[in-house]
Amino acid sequence: MANNVQEVLEFNQFALHLLTSCPEWQGDADRSEEWQVFCTTAGDVTHVLLDGRHAAVHMLEPLNGSIPTTIGLLTALEELLLDNNRLGSSLPPELFGASLRRISLSNNEVSGQLPDDITTSSALQNIRLHRNNLSGTIPTQLGLLAQLQRLSLSNNLLTGTIPPQLGQQSLEHLRLRQNKLSGTLPAELFRMSTLREFDVSGNLLSGPLPGPDAARFEIVHLDVSVNQLTGHIGEQYAELATLEVFKVNNNAFTGVLPGGTLTQVSLPVLRIAAFNSNDLSGSIPISWATNGMPNLKRLTLYHNNLTGAVPSVQPTERCVLAVSGSPYERNQFECPLPATLPSACNAFTFQACRPTTLRLDQMVSHEQLSISLGS
């Protein structure tokens, strides 16, 4: 079993560092520095934690060059963390050994495609490859990694569709933002009881937003903004008890805001909701004014076709509502504005509702509701 690191790892100044120190891994080890390699008592490398941000502490430069295929000789390797370096070339299949549980190569210059035989690492729980130059498609084989909990491939050049096979896992965090992904959102992902974060913002996705099973879908952060999604936003999205961040802005959604058929929305922990820059119509549901969103801090509705009255809101301990806008935005809300707006948010100066806009002169906090009145 290989443990001669000078032979195995060929990064510049890498082997020198490894040969000077390789303590045994402790589960509660201090990871604040993350420029360390750990071994078993027999000398086999188990954890490589070399975040380039900490190289200077050891008077070293961040790692550069290609990732050597000989790293596959580290048969006991469980964790490979090489974030924030200058590593290029493609991902060698040899990286994905049977013992590997976590691989993190974010913010490097890695290119090429994700290898199909990534499933060799059947123990993988965490894959972090964001902020690189990866291209090609997301392998459907990722759906075979039964223990995978986190998958972060954001800020790459990935194309193709999102594999529905990812919905067969126990994923908790799925981050695919800022790629070139197309096609539709797999309905399988919206039936998962484990998924807590789903971010596909800044892609080329089209089609509808699947309706979740509100009783099972315990999502916390859902961001599908800046795509080409169409259709209606389902009423189920007004009844997600765990939802904290909901961003559907900058798409082509039509229809009305969710919650219109409900007596009261049930979004007890919702902090941020962005509906702006769509083709939504109708009025703000009266159910939004029944204190079903007690923790709301920011709600954006501008650049839609909304009309009708702005419902009264319940004053809270924080400034929840701060109304701002532009005369070029399309909403046409009615006057008068509810009297609770200034009392809930303190010291606002209002202009006419139409065609000019509300002006925010003295905002006590940064929390805001941007409903953007005007023509």
Which shape, going by the Cα principal axes?
A: elongated
Report the β-strand fraction as a percent range: 15-25%
Number of helices: 3
The helix/strand class is mainly beta
Mean pLDDT: 79
- Work out the helicity level: under 10%
Query: For the CA atoms, what is the radius of gyration?
Result: 25 Å
Q: How many E strands?
A: 23
- Order of adjacent strands in the largest pleated sheet: 1-2-4-6-8-10-11-12-14-16-18-20-23
Low-confidence stretches: 1-19, 315-328, 341-368, 371-375
Amino- and carboxy-terminal Cα gap: 72 Å
Q: State the major sheet.
A: 13 strands, mixed
Elements, N to C (H/E) = HHEEEEEEEEEEEEEEEEEEEEEEHE
State the gist of this model:
By secondary structure, the protein is mostly beta strands. It has helices spanning 5-8, 14-20, 340-345, and strands spanning 35-39, 45-50, 64-66, 79-81, 86-88, 102-104, 111-112, 126-128, 133-134, 150-152, 173-175, 197-199, 206-207, 221-223, 228-231, 245-247, 252-253, 272-274, 281-282, 298-300, 305-308, 332-333, 368-370.
Task: Give descriptors for this structure.
375 residues, mainly beta, 13-stranded mixed sheet, 5% helix, 19% strand, disordered C terminus
Description of the molecule:
The protein has 375 residues and is mainly beta. Helices cover 5% and strands 19% of the residues. The chain is built from three helices and 23 strands. A 13-stranded mixed β-sheet has the order 1-2-4-6-8-10-11-12-14-16-18-20-23, with no helix packed on it. The radius of gyration is 25 Å and the shape is elongated.
